Inverse folding.
């Protein structure tokens, strides 16, 4: 096999080329070059392969349509099956080319000297010259396609031409430079590429190529792929599988390739360590056990009295009665309370209890702030008031604009009863809530009478999320936080008891003379308290008293007269017509403070409270335990000078039957119903005519008047009346 | 609930009021064992307690080798002396359903009807007697109803032998985390009602030795009952304890029921 030299095609810079004198000159070189190549090829084929495939395979590019060149089969690969020099004949040229591409365009793709073409050319036995020829040609492809490729090593092509060169190299490696009559011809001429005007300077073009390629090689943060590799893979897949109409399904192919890229992060040799949700809750709990800063410690020492109660001691007494959480959990609550005390300016603090919820539970702490520390809430209220005022102004403006207004309704909503001041009545204590010990404490808003009134009518399980809406009838004014607060207020008012004599009224002058005072509100600890034995406490209920004021029907502890009008309101009322005379509201009174439990009403035949001793075997150390039957879950204990109240339950009052929610009221009548308003169909024309005819008949026959006719008249009269209606 | 496992179980299921003071717990440990000896039970479980107005009933169950056989139930007022309860009949359950209000705490107390409908009267009245129900019968009926409604076991904890008796599965090591969260891994421990209504395809997936009971999945109403169960299970997850003895804990749910119908 004669070794034929591969015709060297030198690619020079544009400047040099231009001397050739325009496209024609270049064309001439191109054609000659191609012709030379073709000659070499054909010579080879003729010689070495008499069995070569018939001519259709060896086509010159001339005369081939543009798209036909992409057909892989049209490429004149000569050799099949004959091995030379121990090298595989049918190498995967595409892969090589891809390899070249992927490894960087820096390796000059030209057939001379560098690249795989050169490698082959140096092989002993020449071997795959024919093979190498195509590769050489492939490699030389960029020469015409890369216009203005500088010099010896065509290192960089311009962006567009590179992209096209990519494809071009894959499929039409063999094809010569475009001939003038072919579309795209001009693009491949140096100086006439798409972006030539934008990158006039080859250096800039180089840079642009580099940038483009670097950009394509950027791997995405989310998936770790880069566009370059992805495109390569997609095109490889397309060429392997050869689907019909690849352009139509290109996106799907791209998606499939991406999907196939998925790799699990896991190392197959090791198991990934599972992260259980319990780890997070454990961490929250662990944070409870860290000591706070040194500054807090000093503050505590100065104060002397720590507002934190001895939760464990109370829990011990309750445990005697079988009430309470496990010791571990109680201790965690203890620590959580300590954290609360260290964060908020608290004067007294108490573990109120736990309310169960469907998803999460609530742990509740009852707290009283130090004086002067409650300014935050008043600010919020002021903001709300201002917001309302603005709303009113806007509404006034709207009303003025409308001229054809429907008649204003005479409905006056019942006056809103204001909530009690913080620190008095139902809002005497502030409550903090959290779901699990260790979570941050959330303050519950103060309760309003409207909320209490509504809470009495509904029965909803708590979900455990404070912002959950309460969907009910009658509609509850607030969300779960408000409902929780209302229930806490009701439970406290109904079930917080203490041994008789523990509290006494603080003596003040003039208390008894106040009108509408509703009894004394202040009580204090009795220093002369003499505790009764547990046995005596259990014997009768009169040894226990309520020390929280009960909530009136109105929703407050102290009755508020909504008819008391200020001067402004009286002035407005004089202008308006008074349609309804407001009823005189009777002052509501509840049982006074410190009333014994014996006066509590039960439900049917069930007493309100159940008393028991914690143990009958050791009466000396027995603890008197009180269970409420009205609020199942409320407990109290008394042992010597100590007593406590706690609540563990769902937060609902006991009801004999199942809870039936209130039905919506019947539809309001719009107008009084009467015969004048009642509609009837107007008589049609036929009826009127018939009526006239009947009347004429009647007139004719009326004179002959017999009872029968009178009856007919009667009937007709009735018909007349009906028609008139 | 086996008396040995009581403390742990109470810790887990403590929702506030367990009704079991230390004294009672200590007493249970001793008296239940003696019950087992006296009645020749194979095992004794503490079922729970029902609180009445004047006293609390503590209930225990004794089982023979077959877990599905009718169980003997005993009650006590002080966890020391136990009395056997009569087995539940359909009549008892019906009558007890008419009662409302808390238990009195006195087993010989008799409820009298004054407000029953005329139709019910005709049904129940025989020989012109006034309708009375003893508290004991009401207790029996209540326990039966609660068991039927809420007695659950984890899947694969019990196995049915080809002879029809049910035994504990010694190879059961508890439910995994994902399994424990699903309602389908728990069964009602009562006569199955829905099994025969399943399609053949569903039945093909079942294993007759372990899937012979109704699953919790198809319960209606789902929300309340099973959420409570999930609540409990949530606590299990919190403590990361394998649910091997879950069926025992299933009965712990009963503590909080205030038997008001």
């Amino acid at each position: 096999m004669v070794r034929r030299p591969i015709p060297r095609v030198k690619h020079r810079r544009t400047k040099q080329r231009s001397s050739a004198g325009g496209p024609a000159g270049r064309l001439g070189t191109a054609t000659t070059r191609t012709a030379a190549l073709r000659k070499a090829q054909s010579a080879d084929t003729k010689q070495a392969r008499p069995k070569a495939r018939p001519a259709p395979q060896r086509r010159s590019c001339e005369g081939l349509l543009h798209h036909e060149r992409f057909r892989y089969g049209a490429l004149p690969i000569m050799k099949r099956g004959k091995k030379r020099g121990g090298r595989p004949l049918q190498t995967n040229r595409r892969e090589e080319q891809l390899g070249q591409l992927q490894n960087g365009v820096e390796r000059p793709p030209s057939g001379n000297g560098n690249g795989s073409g050169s490698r082959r050319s140096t092989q002993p036995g020449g071997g795959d010259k024919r093979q190498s020829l195509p590769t050489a040609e492939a490699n030389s492809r960029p020469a015409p396609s890369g216009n203005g490729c500088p010099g010896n090593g065509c290192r960089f092509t311009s962006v567009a031409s590179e992209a096209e060169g990519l494809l071009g190299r894959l499929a039409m490696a063999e094809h010569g430079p475009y001939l003038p009559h072919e579309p795209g011809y001009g693009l491949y001429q140096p100086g006439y590429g798409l972006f030539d005007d934008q990158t006039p300077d080859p250096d800039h073009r180089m840079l642009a190529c580099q940038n483009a390629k670097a950009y394509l090689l950027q791997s995405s943060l989310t998936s770790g792929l880069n566009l370059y590799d992805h495109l390569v893979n997609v095109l490889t897949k397309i060429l392997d599988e050869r689907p019909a109409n690849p352009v139509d399904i290109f996106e799907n192919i791209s998606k499939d390739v991406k999907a196939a890229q998925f790799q699990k992060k896991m190392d197959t040799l090791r198991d990934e360590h599972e992260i259980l949700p319990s780890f997070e809750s454990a961490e929250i709990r662990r944070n409870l056990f860290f000591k706070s800063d040194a500054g807090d410690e000093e503050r505590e020492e100065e104060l002397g009295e720590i507002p934190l109660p001895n939760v464990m001691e109370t829990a011990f007494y309750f445990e005697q009665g079988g009430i309470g959480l496990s010791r571990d959990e109680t201790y965690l609550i203890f620590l959580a309370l300590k954290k609360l005390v260290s964060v908020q300016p608290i004067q007294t603090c108490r573990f109120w209890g736990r309310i169960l919820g469907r998803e999460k539970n609530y742990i509740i702490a009852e707290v009283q702030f130090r004086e002067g520390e409650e300014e935050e809430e008043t600010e919020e209220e002021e903001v709300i008031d201002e917001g309302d005022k603005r709303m009113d102004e806007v509404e006034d403006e709207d009303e003025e604009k409308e001229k054809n207004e429907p008649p204003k309704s005479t409905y006056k909503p019942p006056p809103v009863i204001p909530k009690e001041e913080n620190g008095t009545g139902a809002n005497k204590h502030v409550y903090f809530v959290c779901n699990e010990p260790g979570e941050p404490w959330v303050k519950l808003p103060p309760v309003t009478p409207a909320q209490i009134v509504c809470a009495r009518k509904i029965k909803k399980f708590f979900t455990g999320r404070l912002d959950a809406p309460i969907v009910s009838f009658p509609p509850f004014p607030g969300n779960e936080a408000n409902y929780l607060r209302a229930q806490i207020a009701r439970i406290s008012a109904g079930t917080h008891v203490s041994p008789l004599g523990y509290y006494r009224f603080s003596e003040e002058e003039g208390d008894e003379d106040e009108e509408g005072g509703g009894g004394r509100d202040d009580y204090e600890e009795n220093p002369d308290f003499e505790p009764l034995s547990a046995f005596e406490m259990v014997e009768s209920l009169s040894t226990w008293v309520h020390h929280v004021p009960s909530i009136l029907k109105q929703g407050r502890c102290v009755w508020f007269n909504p008819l008391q009008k200020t001067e402004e309101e009286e002035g407005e009322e004089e202008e308006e017509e008074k349609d309804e005379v407001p009823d005189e509201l009777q002052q509501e009174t509840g049982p006074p403070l410190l009333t014994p439990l014996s006066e509590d009403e039960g439900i049917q035949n069930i007493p309100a409270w159940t008393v028991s001793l914690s143990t009958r075997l050791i009466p000396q150390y027995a603890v008197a335990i009180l269970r409420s039957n009205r609020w199942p879950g409320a407990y109290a204990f008394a042992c010597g000078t100590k007593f406590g109240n706690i609540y563990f339950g769902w937060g609902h009052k006991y009801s004999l039957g199942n809870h039936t929610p209130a039905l919506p009221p019947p539809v309001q009548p719009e107008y009084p119903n009467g015969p004048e308003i009642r509609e009837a169909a107007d008589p049609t024309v036929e009826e009127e005519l018939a009526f006239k005819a009947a009347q004429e008949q009647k007139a004719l026959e009326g004179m002959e008047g017999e009872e029968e006719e009178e009856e007919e008249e009667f009937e007709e009269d009735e018909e007349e009346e009906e028609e008139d209606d | 609930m086996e008396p040995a496992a009581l403390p742990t179980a109470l810790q887990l299921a403590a929702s506030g009021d367990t009704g079991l003071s230390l004294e009672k717990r200590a007493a249970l440990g001793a008296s239940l064992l003696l019950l087992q000896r006296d009645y020749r039970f194979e095992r004794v479980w503490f079922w729970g307690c029902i609180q009445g107005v004047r006293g609390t009933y503590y209930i225990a169950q004794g089982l023979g080798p077959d877990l599905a056989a009718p169980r003997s139930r005993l009650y006590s007022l002080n966890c020391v002396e136990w009395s056997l309860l009569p087995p539940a009949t359909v009549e008892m359950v019906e009558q007890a359903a008419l009662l409302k209000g808390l238990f009195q705490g006195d087993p010989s107390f008799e409820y009298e009807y004054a407000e029953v409908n005329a139709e019910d009267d005709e049904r129940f009245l025989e020989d012109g007697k006034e309708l009375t129900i003893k508290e004991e019968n009401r207790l029996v009926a209540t326990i039966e109803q609660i068991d039927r409604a809420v007695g659950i076991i984890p899947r694969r904890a019990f196995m049915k032998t080809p002879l029809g008796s049910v035994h504990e599965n010694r190879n059961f090591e508890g439910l995994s985390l994902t399994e424990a969260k699903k309602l389908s891994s728990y069964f009602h421990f009562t006569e199955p009602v829905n099994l025969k209504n399943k399609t053949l395809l569903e039945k093909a997936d079942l294993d007759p030795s372990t899937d012979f009971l109704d699953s919790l999945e198809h319960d209606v109403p789902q929300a309340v009952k099973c959420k409570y169960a999930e609540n409990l299970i949530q606590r299990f997850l919190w403590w990361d304890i394998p649910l091997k003895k879950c069926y025992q804990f299933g009965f712990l749910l009963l503590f909080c029921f205030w038997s008001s119908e």
Q: What stands out?
A: The radius of gyration of chain B is 19 Å. Chain B has two domains: 5-150+222-235, 158-215.
